[in-house]
Amino acid sequence: MQQHTPxxxxxxxxxxxxxxxxxxxxxxxxxxxxxxxxxxxxGGGSGGGAFALPPVGPATTPTEPSAPTEPSVPEPPPPLxxxxxxxxxxxxxxxxxxxxxxxxxxxxxxxTFSTALAQGATYAVSVRSQPGGPSQVCTVNGGTxxxxxxxxxxxxxxxATQSYTVGGTVGGLAGTGLVLQNNxxxxxxxxxxxxxxxxxxxxxxxxxxxxxxxxxxxPTQLCSVAQGSGTIDADDVASVQVVCATRTRAVNVTxxxxxxxGLVLQNNxxxxxxxxxxxxxxxxxxxAEGSTxxxxxxxxxxxxxxxxxxxxxxxxxxxxxxxxxxxxxxTPATRSVYVSSLLGSSIPMLMRYSAADLTAQASTIAPATxxxxxxxxxxxxxxxxxxxxxxxxxxxxxxxxTMSSATLGARGAVAVGMHPSGDYLYVVxxxxxxxxxxxxxxxxxxxxxxxxxxxxxxxxxxxxxxxxxxxAVDPLGRFVFVGTSGQGIQTLPIRxxxxxxxxxxxxxxxxxxxxxxxxxxxxxxxxxDGMLRTYSIHASTGALTQTALTVAGLGVxxxxxxxxxxxxxxxxxxxxxxxxxxxxxxxxxxTGALGTPFPIHGLINPVATAFDPSSDGVNFLVGSLNLFRxxxxxxxxxxxxxxxxxxxxxxxxxxxxxx
Length: 659
Prior knowledge:
- By secondary structure, this protein is mainly β.
- Helix content is 3%, strand content 47%.
- The protein has one helix and 57 strands.
């Protein structure tokens, strides 16, 4: 029998093959084995014996195949960082952001966000906070994209410093040519008040310094800068203040020849300058360049009367102080003495005599008997108050004087007084009790215009005789004092326009004569009780305070006239009843205290007395027949150099020293 070599059993399938493949191979092997057995006649049946398979080698036990393994997965790539560079950073506080990841950057150079991103993720770099100090604006270039296979390092952050304008406001500018400058280079012409802005902006963190490069002229001004320097922060500067003021110059005057007191100069009708001695003086108020100045004499010296004149007192202020104004003072001799008398006891006459030697200069028939006189301080004319209720303007002529009615008619006798400036005339009438104020025009002083009329209680019907009410004007031009019946002395303040305020009545007896000291500090009054009173004058209100009381003369109701010399050193009064003249030295110029009276006897019905304001101690006195001129020294109780002239019946004569 042919022996067949069994077919080789297939090798086991590797663990890498599938279970299904192994099972297919096994089925094919079994099928092949069956076919081989059949070919050899083996099989069951009656005629055949048992058939045994030949051994095929050592017996082996089949093993179970190992389980298959999963294919390997590659590791993902690591995440990648996002970054770049910052350029131009000068400030602080820069914060970058990539999506929600933030990064503070303090200096130029490279930067990298702390959070890395996987491939394929998106990034978006932006500026979360801009830097300050200085203020900057940073911009991002290349800041967005998708992460590839390498880190992102190309984001560019560029920072630039911000610039801001510098400006402010200008005030007070009146001239032209103002030029402002910032940081010594940026010029800005300014033509008018208001806001300004320099054309060149300044970087944040840089300094600015605004100055005046060119001051304005026409008029010349001085402009100053406030809040003009500092450091630019993060906003425009609009707080610079430029204030311009017109440059001013001092006005100086040089005074010479002054021998009195009370000189007051004035500049531009408002700036007063009291001058008490010779030398250079300066007005308190400077005058703007380009403006005019006008120096005048507001008040001539009162104590020892002088007249001062101004030279080169007008002009336009240039670029220097005014130093060429001069004021020359002189004491002009008194020219004339006026006496009102009656010719043949019925014809009113106005007599004018030489003050130097009492020679007759003019004899003019007058329209009325004059009972008071007032000299024009500007030496233009004389005002005479009559017993007929009118005031006449008297102008000197060659051999004859002219007279014209100057004020409205009133009832009774009138008293007149002049403002020390010569601009106002005050008139009070005892017939109707009116106190009138007149303006005396410079061009036509003989035609004053009425400004005001005030009724004074007790000013009418005070005397059956044609005598004027006691009236005195403060030498400083502050007050008018009027003696009225039953009301004592009434003080009326003088307003700036020359009109009078309401009167203030003083608690004193009725008076027959009042006179104010040239200093304006006090006045003297003779009462109807024959007493002489001294009153201090309140400088602001004019209120009178009695400081002394003494007997005026020997007889009650005998004193009719008071006078003070030009230097304010002596007081003289006339006692008509006892036919005496009393003179007292003023021993205290501050209080007006009086010394022992020095009497002059032998007078015939003395009526009025006055002192020559241009000569020391020279006194004039007029009685019913004579006019006297003499020099009095009360301290030595003596008088000398007596001149006398007969004037005829001078029943109601008054004396005026025409300056």
